[in-house]
Structure formats: C-alpha cells, structure tokens
Write a structure and sequence with these properties.
about 290 residues, globular
Length: about 290
C-alpha cells in the first residue's frame, strides 16, 4: 500500500513537471472558446470560463462602446440574446447615506452577521435583488402585448411582469415577491413603478430591510450595447425616514441562454446561514 502511494505521488509530480516545462501541453488543457457560439451554462468570465473585456488578452484596453440596437421606431431596444448581470447594488452594503429608522438599522446590522436570506431558501427576489441572483436575468420586451418580462436564472426560476399598456395599479393588491409593476418609456429610458411587495424577501444582499409599504421607481437606460444603467428610488415610510436610492450598471453576457438551475441541488444553506449563532434550531418555523 505504501509503495502504491509513493508511486502515485511520484507520477503526479512528474506530470506537473512535464506540464510546467512544456507550455504547449498546458495550452492543450484549455482550448480556446468559440466566441461566436451560443453558450448554455456558466457565462463567460465566471466559474472558470474565459474572461472577456478589460484584462483579457494580456491587459489590452477595452473596446470602444457599441451603440445600442434600436427598433424601427427609433427607440432603443431592450431585447438581446444574453443575460444581464448586476454588481454592487443600489446603496451598496447600507452606508451612512441610507436614512434608516432605528429598528431598520438594527435589522440591517443583524443581517450582516446572520445572513438568513430567503433567497438561499429558493424564494423569489424582488426589486434590485433580482439582478444580483446567480447568473443574472434575461429581459424580454414584447411590444405586441405591451409587456416586459424579466426572467431569473438562479433561485426558484421565477419571472417578473411589467405592464406597459397604460394601466394603473389596482386597488386591494395581494402582496407578492415582485409586486405590481407598471412601466412607460421616457425617451430611451424604461421607467417602472412598483407597489404591492410582500415582506418575504430582501431587496438587496442583506443591508436594507423593507415593509409592505415599499414603493419603488426603477429606470432602465441602455447606454450602449453591453450596458444598462439601473437607477432606483426606494420609498418606504415604514422603514426609512425619507426616500433614497442609487445607481448600478447591468452588464451584458452576450450569447448566454437561460439554463436549468435546481435551487435545492448542492444547497449548503442549512450549514452556511448560521452567522454568529454557531447553529440554528431548524425545528421551529423559519421567519425571513
């Protein structure tokens, strides 16, 4: 047994030495991607896939922005073969500029330690959190029925509907994860007004609590082919002393299709979401 172990270690060491001294052998292990193909699975630049843009190819400068595609009417087009990835989020991790009420600030601070987020238990993520889910989201505009759909990849595979047919918010809304969204175009910017959120999700990755009084206004402006500027105003008199908000960019992962994502598969949330507690009693009902 000891001889076999010694031979296995020696063989592994010899293979590493051969690869280190033979660059062509290393390159053979990672064939160049087909940039023109449709990619199903992990988008480029993440999860071991080849990165694109700044830093790729030995630090070459990023290419000049490409103008966004437009419809026959001249208005910018949101539809694109690919998914949109957010970063950072509006308000970051809840800096001093966020006008918390005292209770909301206490909840925010607790969430940074005890990250018991409903998203990790396969719940839908409303507002900006939808764009911070694994692998991003796809935006699909259907002008013929005057609706925009936003499809998640990671999480519970849900989708959000934005009505652009001029309707108003209905009375006596049943609160939901995505709320009720109505939208309209102001030039090249899609403005989305949403009310009717429930309290069963986090609007970001852990800093900002909300109540069912939450009212958001989001603005989607496609500044070039590969970026959408996302501006959000958060108005929740139940949690904040005044409206607040911010901006983030959504980056296009072109030629990436939606793919199957099983939320519970390899889900280590029951081990990881314990924060400072060391353990969590799972016999009691979980409260988001």
């Amino acid at each position: 047994m000891h001889n076999r172990t010694f031979l296995s270690v020696a063989a592994a060491g010899l293979l590493m030495a051969v690869l280190a001294g033979n660059p062509s052998a290393q390159q053979a292990q990672a064939p160049a991607p087909n940039q023109g193909s449709v990619q199903v699975g992990v988008p480029n630049g993440r999860g071991g896939a080849p990165a694109r843009g700044r830093g790729a190819g030995g630090g070459r400068a990023a290419a000049a922005p490409i103008p966004p595609p437009r419809l026959a009417s001249g208005r910018v087009q949101l539809n694109e073969k690919g998914v949109w990835i957010g970063g950072g989020g509006v308000g970051g991790r809840g800096g001093p500029e966020v006008p918390y009420q005292p209770w909301a600030k206490a909840v925010s601070e607790d969430r940074r330690v005890n990250e018991l987020e409903p998203h990790t238990r396969c719940k839908a993520s409303g507002m900006q959190r939808q764009f911070l889910t694994p692998y991003g989201a796809e935006i699909l505009e259907l002008p013929e029925i005057q609706r925009v759909f936003i499809f998640d990849i990671g999480g519970p595979h849900t989708f959000r509907t934005i009505y652009t047919d001029g309707r108003k918010h209905p009375k006596d809304l049943q609160p939901t994860y995505y709320g009720h969204s109505i939208g309209w175009w102001e030039g090249d910017t899609l403005v989305v007004d949403t009310i009717g959120y429930n309290e069963s999700f986090w609007i970001d990755r852990g800093a900002a609590p909300h109540t069912d009084q939450l009212h958001t206004v989001e603005k989607f402006t496609r500044t070039d082919k590969n970026q959408i500027r996302y501006d959000a105003t958060i108005d929740d008199p139940g949690a904040y002393t005044k409206p607040w908000g911010g901006t983030m960019n959504l980056r296009l992962e072109a030629n990436t299709e939606l793919f199957e994502y099983v939320c519970q598969q390899q889900n280590f949330a029951h081990e990881l979401m314990v924060g400072a507690l060391g353990h969590v009693d799972r016999t009691a009902q979980t409260v988001p």
